[in-house]
Amino acid sequence: MLKKTTVLATLIFAILFGCGNTFASAYSNTVHNWNYKPEKDNKPVTTEPHYLEMLEKTNGFFIGNTSKKELYLTFDNGYENGYTETVLDVLKEKEVPAAFFVTGHYLNDAEDLIKRMVDEGHIVGNHSWHHPSLPEVGDGRLTNELNKVKERFTEITGVKEMNYLRPPRGQFSERSLVLSEKLGYTNVFWSMAYKDWEVDKQKGGDYAYNQIMKRIHPGAIMLIHSVSSDNAEALPRVIDDARELGYEFKSLDDLMFEKQMSDWQLP
Predict the structure, then answer these.
(1) Are 80 and 103 in contact (CB under 8 A)?
(2) Which member of 32, 76, 122, 139 is catalytic?
(3) Which of 122, 127, 217, 225 is catalytic?
(4) Does the annotation mark 50 as catalytic?
(5) 76 among known catalytic residues
(6) pTM to 2 decimals?
(7) Residues 6+ apart with CB under 8 A from 223
(8) Which of 206, 226, 192, 237 is nearest to 122 (CA)?
(9) How many CB atoms lie within 10 A of CB 68?
(10) Contact, 55 vs 61, CB < 8 A?
């Protein structure tokens, strides 16, 4: 039934947007690599003006309300390296919500962890099936990359909703943003990250702690990779000390609700 639904959705998409080039040619497909402008003293960051414009037009975001000391933990899960269970244990103990962006490889390799994420109230987002650069694939493949993740996630958990997308490699274009939004996704970038994904170059929990704590800021959407042993070790201390500094950990759903309420307010 799920496969039939996916095929039907793809057919409807093709009818609405043409057989391939019609939609693609309507929007710029210039490839952009996500970046932000670092700030000192834990101040909120910003990004390129044209990135802000594209995100505003497609309802994507990279940072929360910078007037509030709120943090949003997000993890990119391309594959399992043995540390996600520890991360989940910490989040459960500390009562912290998070979002995990997963690939097809992760869905097939770590079903029990996916179920646990859902059971414990975390968000599972789309990171594509094969982790390609979305601007560099055609409309049909982009659609299939996202549909396959959602379909497999539903097979594992029974949950039909998947609302958030983390573009693989941080690469995007106007076309990929518009197309993924039309498929029902909110593109979520980040305002805090560090080089934590090289599993053969880990430097210890203290290093991870210092890298994270010097980068947190009001409204920060934190990108952390769960393949990192450093991050798993540092996470309890990060949570405790961030709270000591007055920060509160929130869910992406909380941020979306706040943004929707703001949009609905009458001028």
Answers:
(1) no
(2) 76
(3) 225
(4) no
(5) yes
(6) 0.90
(7) 74, 75, 76, 190, 192, 193
(8) 226
(9) 13
(10) yes
